[in-house]
């Protein structure tokens, strides 16, 4: 079985990813750390505790950083994920308590306690992972692998979703994303190139609502606001962003990948833009040299992801 730490900003598709990881027998969630993004950090942390309690996911939940490495607090996308970042469903009071450690410390402790066993999955602003790396560079060689939902690399014409250049998770903390891609650990990026290739329609969620028990009904409820936003884009379904990253952890064979150094722009009009120099391409010597090779996803079996998710629910 695979041990996973889930660093997340729930978030509708974050909740989907959590249910997918939790519902997969050979995945062992060992911790949840919260990130800013779909809500301010207090909101996403409350949501993470709520989800853990509601779905009896009995693992430590640690609160992460609210501001990016450069000190920026982004305003949440309330028209996409709702004001409470869970599609504005009513949320009952939460009793589960936070782990006392800040997110980066929980990450460091769990990685050191489980050498070469932990997969880090990050689906919000990636500040916590970068802080963990800065504080304990040794974790790079102790982690099994790192899977990020973020970025857009132009495959299938994927561009930014918060600016023409940048995807939201990378834009929220571009320096963190860049430092994660510069570290010597195996990184796979599940970006908009593939996540926008998988849609889940109302008919799909209706089926989950009918046959998916408590989780199925919950998924129907939280996706109403998200669905409306996607209809506004002219789509008949929602993009499957974070759950695609979870799907990659469970079934990497559903994806095609390409290797090469990745950098994330930390300033100017391209802030948060992600660029890959595919391995084998040769350029004059420069600051792309000596960056590790990162794997990005370029193709996905969308039906495979949908059926994996349906089974987990
Ligand atoms: C990413 O941004 C957030 O809104 C989603 O939860 C996802 O992680 C997509 O760009
Ligand atoms: Ca997210």
TrEMBL record:
Alphabetical GO biological process terms: purine nucleoside catabolic process
What Gene Ontology molecular function terms does this protein carry? purine nucleosidase activity
> By what name is this protein known?
Nucleoside hydrolase
InterPro entries attached to this UniProt entry: Inosine/uridine_hydrolase_dom, IUNH, Ribo_hydro-like, TAT_signal
Keywords from the named record = Glycosidase, Hydrolase, Signal
Every Inosine/uridine-preferring nucleoside hydrolase domain range: 4-305
Keyword check for Endoplasmic reticulum: no
Q: Taxonomically, which superkingdom?
A: Bacteria
* A single Gene Ontology CC term: cytosol
Quote the PROSITE patterns the UniProt record gives. TAT
Q: Which Pfam families match?
A: IU_nuc_hydro (PF01156)
Q: Which organism is it from?
A: Gluconobacter cerinus
């Amino acid at each position: 079985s695979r041990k996973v730490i889930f660093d997340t900003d729930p978030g509708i598709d974050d909740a989907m990813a959590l249910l997918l990881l939790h519902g997969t027998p050979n995945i062992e969630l060992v911790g949840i750390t919260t990130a800013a993004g779909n809500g301010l950090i207090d909101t996403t942390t409350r949501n993470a505790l709520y989800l853990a309690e509601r779905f009896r996911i009995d693992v430590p939940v640690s609160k992460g950083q609210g501001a990016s490495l450069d000190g920026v607090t982004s305003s949440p996308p309330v028209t996409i994920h709702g004001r409470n970042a869970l599609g504005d469903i009513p949320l009952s009071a939460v009793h589960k308590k936070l782990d006392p450690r800040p997110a980066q410390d929980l990450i460091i402790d769990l990685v050191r306690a489980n050498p070469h066993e932990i997969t880090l999955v990050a689906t919000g602003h990636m500040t916590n992972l970068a802080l963990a790396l800065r504080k304990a560079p040794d974790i790079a060689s102790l982690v099994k692998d790192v899977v990020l939902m973020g970025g857009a690399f132009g495959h299938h014409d994927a561009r930014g979703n918060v600016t023409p250049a940048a995807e939201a998770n990378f834009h929220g903390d571009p320096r963190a994303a860049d430092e994660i891609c510069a570290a010597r650990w195996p990184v796979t990026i599940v970006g908009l190139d593939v996540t926008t290739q998988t849609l889940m329609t109302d008919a799909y969620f209706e089926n989950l609502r009918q046959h998916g028990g408590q989780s199925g009904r919950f998924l129907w409820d939280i996706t109403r606001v998200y669905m409306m936003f996607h209809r506004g884009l002219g789509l008949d379904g929602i993009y499957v962003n974070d759950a695609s990253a979870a799907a990659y952890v469970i079934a990497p064979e559903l994806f095609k990948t390409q290797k090469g150094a990745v950098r994330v722009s930390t300033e100017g009009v391209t802030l948060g833009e992600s660029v890959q120099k595919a391995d084998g391409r040769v350029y004059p010597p420069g600051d792309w040299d000596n960056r590790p090779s990162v794997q990005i996803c370029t193709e996905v079996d969308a039906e495979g992801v949908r059926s994996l998710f349906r089974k987990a629910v």
